[in-house]
Structures are given as structure tokens and as C-alpha cells.
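Review box. Two proteins, two foldings.
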Amino acid sequence: MENLDSPVVSDGGSLAESISNLEKRISDQILLAVNCFGDSEAESNIPSHVQVWISKILEDRSLAEMGDDLSDMGQDEDRGAGVEVVDSSVRKAFLGGYVHRGTGAEYHDACSQTQPPDPGPGTTTHRTTQTYTWRDQGQNTLSTRSMQTLRSDLHSPWAGDRLVSPQPYTTADEAERKMTRLLTEKATVIQKYFRGWLGRRYLDQLREKKRRREELERRELQLKQRERELVLKRNVIAVTYPKNKQDFEMLYAILEKWRQDQVARAEQMATGAGRKAMLWFLLKKQLQLMSRIEQLWRQAVAEEARKPRLLDATTEVRRWTGYKRLAVSMETLEVQQAWQLRELHRALGEDLASGERAELLVCLRQAFSHLGGGSARELVRLLDRECHFLAMGLGAPRLAGLRARIEQVFLDVVRDPRVNPQVATLRAAEQGRVPQRDVVRCDRCLKFKHYSKFPLGNLTKMVSCCSACQWLEVAGRTRVDLGPYRNIARAVRRDEQRQAAYCSVAFVMSDDDFYLLVDNIWQGHSAISSSGDLKLLRLCRWDTESLWSPWNCILLTADEAKAHCSSNSSPGEIYEDNFKEKVIHRHAIAKLQFKHLARHDQACLDTQETVGID
């Protein structure tokens, strides 16, 4: 065996020749096994330093070059030998395999396509890793020269440097213009967002106003609907259970409207004898209805007569106009005593429990037992009787007659001036207010009545018919319901009083005058929308700066009148010429119809200017 420690490279030879000689020298000593996947495994007794040198050569030379050298070696007759190359750079684990039974060849599971898993860093337990500590120390790098460009022969650290390149030169004017343009752009952006915020806030305010307006309109609509339902309910109750003259006016107006509809229906459906028969049945039915209405009238009069008017009259306080036209009222001791008597009479008519009723009866007996006279003694006797019946346990239905008798006798007792001193004052006032010269004779019923029983209108020239005879005229012929016209008059007076226009002629006009103004002059319809619902119509001022009068008014609905009065412009600037001419024409008719009111209005204005009232 040759010595492999001898020098391989000769003094005058090349590296290639040295490698060739080395290969020839170790061909008999090395067994190389090369598999088909390029992995190799070598076993030899070559010294360690030679193995290191060979491994370096193998790293520099490819497997193909080594294969070519080996093939050249195989062609040499003197050195011909079979060489197997084993690459020992990777040692792969044995993964098992199988043996061919026929040939006896072993086939191992290969892992040459995948590298073996990295075992990772091992656990180190020596002393250095257990006691080692890190120490950081800063050090400034010397910079002996400054330069603007890099040099190849000088290393200059520039990792943290900032490269500055020259920019175009900017003059002061250009810088100012650039700054102005920049400020303008920024100001434009600020203004854009600010105006957007203002716009959004304005939209929010409009949205809130719209919501409030819709809520207000909804409440107004609900209020109007509730008022309309209340008026309708009140009218139904008034027609079903009439109590005063206004209720019976409504009843007769409904009867007249029904009669007119039935007459028109009879004229359309039949002629001749059939028409006469239908009119006869209509007249018969009308008489029955009028008889029933008259019966209700008598019942209402009887109920009105049973009301204790004396107690209401004696409880009125004294009122007069004092210093600086201030209203002054005074309650005397007599008025307070009358108040107590009226409260006792009201308690007698209430439905009380047995114990409370007994206490009330005992209180009345103690109050009237010291009085003399037949009425007082009879009242005490009736009170004792009811107390005895209450003690026996009788109920209210069985004592209704006795209680009605007690109330009537109580009214007879309070008419005594000793019990109610205000009665003497009231009787004296009535006797002094009805002298013989204030009595007027009615031309229809031929009765002498006080002049307060005769209604006086603005068109009345002489007193000739009393209120009772005029009511018969309304019930038998005209049958006009003055309720809606009365509401219109009340609304006009309320508006004039709100504006402190106490000299307006609306305060001296009667309900018949308003009926004539609305129905004859304005034809009972709104001047703008032609609405004929009298419950919604209002008479407002035509010129809002002047006092209300029949020649300074216009008939409109409630909403139209509100819009008309809220306008700050004059009517001549709002309405068209044709509409103004129509309104002025009706004002002229009203002035001719109410010429006596025109003289009264002029007299009031003259007095106002003379006295100096603002």
C-alpha cells in the first residue's frame, strides 16, 4: 500500500495532474458506492487530513466530472478497476424495505426525494451558556473627511444618513404666491366643510320646524274635530230634550226643512189628485209634529217655573263702576245669608246617604224651629216625619213625594224677609222699576206689558209686538234657526272686544240684523270658497285698520278669515279688481240697508274725536 501522506503536488506539475495521480494512488484503497439518486457512502482507511482535502475537492468538482475521470481510469489497462462513488454528504436513516423472493434482492424505502428533518439546536448544558451575560457598548465611528459623492477607496457609513438633492430655486414672490395659493386651497376646504355644516344644521332646523308645524296642525285638526263633535252632540241633545227658546228654534227649523223636502218630493212624484192627497197627509203629519213640539214647550215652561229663581236673584252681588272706570263688586251680609240658603236648598235636592240626610234634616229643624208662621211650622213637621221614616229604614223611592213637598215648603219659607233679608231689597227694586209709564200695549195679544217684554231691533220703528207674539210668528211661519247667526255675532263682538273697539256697531246689532246681513247681503256663502256651512262662517273686517261695520266686513270661513286678518297688506294689494268690485258693491247695499247704523257710527266717531279717546 502506498503512503498517502506523501506530497501529492509535485514542484513542476499542475493541479489536474496532482488530482489524477492521487486518484490512481487511492483507487485500490477506496470503495465508492454510488446509488442512482446521487447519494454516496464511502468507507476507507484514509487519514483524516487526506479525507478533508478530498472532501474539499469533491465540493469543488461535480459528480459528472468525477464520473468522466473514473471512466477514463476504467479505459486504462494498467489501472483498470471498478469504482463506486458514494456521496456521504447526507446520511439517510434506514426506513425499512422488502426482499424479492425470487432473486433475493433487497429493496429499501428511499428518502432521497425529501431531506431528513432538521433535528434543531441541541440542548447545551455547559458552563458558558449558564453564566454568559450580554454587554452593549456604543462606539463612534471616526469620519476623517466629508464628501458629497461616494468613493470606491473609502468606506463611509450612510445607513442613517439623509440624502439631500438640489431643488429648483424659489424666489420670495413665488413663495408668497405659493403660500397664498395653499392658504386659499385650505380656506376653501374649511369653508366647504363649514358651509356643509351650516347647510346640515339649517336642514335640521327646517326638519324640526316642519315636525312642529305638522304636530301643531294635527293638534288643531283634532281640536276642530273635537269641537265639531261637541257641537253636534250638543245640538242632538238640544233637539231631543229642548229646554230654552234656542232649542225650540232649532226644532222648528228642522221641521220646516223637512216640510220643504216633502213638498218638493210630492210635486215631483204626483200630480192632480195624487199630489193633493200627499199634501194632505203631509199637513196631517206636520200638525202632529207641531203638537208634540208644543207639548215639549209646555213641559219646558213648567220646569222653568219650578226653578228657584228667587234664590238666584237674592245671591247677586252689588256691582258698579268706580274710580278710573274700574269694576267694583261687594257682598253684603244679606247676600252671604242668601248664599247659605241656596246651598241648603241644593243639598235637599241631592241624593245623600241616610246618615247624611238625617244630619241635614236635623240642622234645618234647628234653624227654623224658632220661627213662627204656618210655613215654618209645616216645614218642621215634615222634617220630623222624614226623620221618623229614615229611622224606620224606608228607602229614597218611597220618600220622593215627601222630599218634593219639603223642597216646596222650604222655598215658601225663604221668601220671608225674616229668613232672607235680601228678599225685601229685591221686592223694593221691582216695585220701583215698574211704574205705570213703562207699560206698553201689544197690538196682537192686546195685553199691557212692560217695555222689556218687547224686543227692539235696529229696523224697529215702533213698539207694537211683544216677545211672545213674535215667538208665535217664528213657530208658525218663518221657522228660522238663529243659532248659527247668533254664534257669528258672538264671534264678531269677541274680536272687536279683543281689539278694544268698543265703539263698533256690532254691540248694538241684534241677531236678526246679523241674519239679514249674512243671508240677504252675502247670500249665506263664503266670498272666496263659496262654502255654505254656517257653522264655519265668520264675519271679519275687510279693512283691518278700521272698525267693524256692515259696510266694512266680509263673510269667510274660519281659516280664510284667519289668513285675511293676519295679512299686513291692504285688501287692495291682495285681491283682484273683480273681487274687490263685488265686495264694494255689497258694502254699498249694506250701508243702504243699515243707514241708521251708519248715522250711529258717525256720531260715535265724532264723540270719540271730541273727547280725545285713542
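Next protein.
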Amino acid sequence: MEQAGASSCSVVTKRVVLLATVCVNIEAPSGKLLTVRALMDTASDSSFVSEWVVQTLQLRKTIVNVPVTGVHGCETGVSTSAVNLRILSSFDPRFELKVQALVLRKLTSLIPSNYVQREHWPHLTDITLADPDFAIPSKIDLILGADVCGPLFLDGFRQGPAGSPNARLTPFGWVLLGPVECSSEDCLVKNSVTLMHIEAYNNLTAEMQRFWEVEEVPSESPMSEEDTRCENHFKETHTRNSDGRYVVLKLIGGLRLEKVPAVFAWTDSKVTLSWIRGHASKWKPFVAHRVSEIQSALPMVSWRYVCTAHNPADAATRGIDPDELIRHPLWWNGPHWLAKEETAWSREPTVSDGSENVELKGAEKLTCHVAQANKDRARLGHITAEERAAALDCLIKCSQSRYFGLEFDCFKSSKPLPKSSPLLPLQPFLDEKGIIRVGGRLKNAVLSYDERHPIIIAKQCHLALLLARHAHAATLHGGQQLTRCHLAQKFISRRGRCLKLFSDNATNFRGADRELRSLFKAASSFYEKASGDLSTCGTDWIFNPPYAPHFGGLWEAGVKSVKHHLRRVIGDQKMTFEEM
């Protein structure tokens, strides 16, 4: 990957500086020509083209990842694609230039920065300009970097008197360069002078650095509350003299305590609130490091819980239109109860650190009730993933029959949908389970069935709200993107979730000694609990038949192959947990 950097500065001047701008023709794959204004920039080792040109000519893109940085290394954008260009000249019909350029939405500001008064410059009377409109501020859609524009400056050169531009010959005509004196008072403005400077280097180091910074372990582990009190007490009551001995300075007099205004901070995540209220040393490293940073940055803050409906920050995380934001009282004033006394604030709910099992709620609880009602009385134990899926299908069909009853009747009678149906643009159809799904051109895509034909649920149905709430809670109050992805994983078949988990049967251990039997007896309850938890996620745990080790021949062969290669690569070397 390559990294790009752009630097700029501002000056107050009574002149305008002309840059090397040219008009070129870019050829599309169809043979169509598009005339654009280009900047020849010898300070850039890469070429750039605007997104408008790429879309207009329908050029084929290549995926890249090139950060664009400015002064002091500040990142100003990222180029995610590159294109190949064929550039022609109206000045020299025989000229042709092939360039690979990075794509950006906008390249520079208007060039030149101000209108230039065209005067009679004797040294420029008999030449053809590469940019006839050099004096008019216009946009730049192509930057020719030093990788290609260096050889484009030919031997022709004309230098004029002070206050007039110099001219250089190129295959596109003569380009004008240099400062132009301006006698008009209108030229006394703040001109933006842009210097494009592009560097290409391996960006892998920067990406790895960002990754390790996220997981970086602090140089000092967070101390417990007792350790903190002991250290503070020692600093307050002990000093060290010139001999190196510690001296204990008895407190004389009383302390004058001033009332410090209370500071409150709010979060709508009960789990996060429990983490911040607890000491950082109680949590695992990833949470402990971040809790320690928060507590160090805000040591005197009292953290409280606010429901999502009263959280002003929720508007920013969900996204809101500017016109709606202007009339959003919660964003500008906060919740109404915040202006009252602290005693009138809402009661603090019971918070959880997320370590204990969460009671089934909403859509999950409803699905379990339906699955239990449909469960075969001959089969005891937990609800399987198959039974949960069947229960969810039952709920979806009930919802669709209520809100899409007219469409159901049309499907059953093989009649076309009426033009007034809201589902008509989705080209719906009835699958083999009797569930309405989305049709359309994706039926020929190389995707799974559920991805090509998602299930349709009415937004006004309470089931849709329960499913969204369940996904929101399961992602620990994640944002729109995370909740949407969780819903997609829940109802769209994707890679990453195990559908069936196979393992040996318990009776394989019957010939083991008493210790192994006791261990397995204790593990049987684990299997029962784990199987129930897995079914909640849609995974079935299947045991092989007793005395049938050959049923696991496929994965046993895989284990044998992995062990063989591990022995060849690792040998007798002992690996750490991180290396494994």
C-alpha cells in the first residue's frame, strides 16, 4: 500500500502565482474523449484524478488503500481506488500518455486563487497556450505527478520581464508559471497556495502500530483502592532528607475543606456503568485498560445511568438530519429532569457487569414459549436449535398473515398482487415453508438462499420491534451498524456461525477408571447446559452413537494431518500461549 501527503499554506500577498495548468483529453474505453483541466505537479510522485472523471468515462477501478496526509502528517482523506488513463493532446495529435492515477473526490481548490488580469506580454504573443483559460479560477480534475510530468517539460522556454509569467513548452502547448504582479487593490487578499507533495511507502508498519496501540498493555497495572490510599497516605506524611532517610512531617492545625461542585457523567449502557463504577483491577485486561483511562481522566466524576430515550448523545450515534437537529430539544437542553434537584432525578436501576446469565426477554422469550408449546412431549430436555427455528418461522408466518393477508390470499390462489400492494416493488414470493420472501434479480447471485431472498416483516408489527431490541441488547447496546449486522447474522445464513457441532458419545468412557468416570459424570451436566446455550445461538450439538468411533473419521483424519505438519514445523519447541 502507498501513503499520500498533501501540504498547504496561506499567505497575504499582492500578487497571484500561476501554476502549470493544461487542458488534456482523456479517452474512455468506449472511445469517448473528455477534456479536463490538469495540473502538472513535480512535487508529487503519484498522479490523481477526480471521482467525477471516473464516473463520467465509466473507467474500471482497482481497489487500493492509500491514506492522504497533509501538514504535520495530519490525514486528510483516503484513496480507495485507482484507474488507468489514456491521455491525448489537442496540440500534438501524435502524443499519447498512459497514466495510473489514484481516485479522490476532490483534488484541490480553484486554481488560480484569484482572477488574473491578462496583459500584453510581448514574449507570449506567438505561442499556443496549453490552458487558454489560465486566468480564470477553475477546478482541477487531474494531477500529473512527477512520475509522468517530468519528461513532459520540453526544451522550449521563454522568460519575460519582472511581474510577468514564464512559459515552458509541453506536448499540450505552452504552460505559464510564476508570480504575476497585480496593480488592482482587489488583489490584496488572502491567497491559498497549495503545494502537492506525495510520498509512497509501505503503510503496513503504520497499520500494525494502530493495531498494537489498541491492545497495548499500560506500563503500570491499575492499583487497587487500598494500594491507592496507601500510596497517597505515604506521600502526604513522609519526606526524604539529604541523608536519604525517610522522615515522618505530623500534621499541625486543621484542614479547611471547601465545597467542590459535583460533576456527573452519564451512559445508557448498564454494563459499561458497572465497569466504570468498579475498580479497573477487577476486570479483564481489555476492559481494565479502558476503565483505568476513563477513571484517570475523570477522577472526581459521579457516573449515572440514563435511558436511551433521554440520552442526547443517542441522536449523534444514530444519525439525524440537520433540520431536525435544530428543533431537537433533547440535544440542546438535555432531559427535562436534569434541571431539577438531584433528589428528583430518576431512580438508579440495578446494573450488571455482564458476567452472569441474562434472563430471556423479548423476542427470545416469545420464541421459547412457542417452541415449548410445539415441543414433542416424548422429547425432554432443552429446546433445540431446530425447534427454535421452527418456532420463529411460526411467529413470522403469524405476523405476515396479519399484516400481509391480501398478499397471502393472492399467493394461495396464484393471482398477481394488486398494484396498491406495498410489497410489489420487492417482487415477493411464497417459499416452501409458507413465508413471504424478497424476490428480484438476486436470485441468480452467488449467495446463500437467505441472502438472496430475505424474509419480509412489517415494520409496524411488534415482532419487528422485539427482534431489533433483542439484537440491540445482544450487542451490548451497539449502534445502528452493529445491530443491523447482528440481525443479518440472525436471519441471514452467513459464514462464521457453527450450525452443527459433532463430538464423541459419553459411553466411550465406560471402560475408564473411577476417576475418569467421576470426571465425565461432572462433565455431563456441562454438556447439557452447553448444549442448551448453543441452541440459543442456533447451533445443534450432536453426539456420535455409542461404540462408533468411525463416525468421527473425517475430523480424526484432519487432526492427524494437522499434527503431522505441526511436528514438522514446531518439532520439540515449547510454544507460549500467545504463539499458539
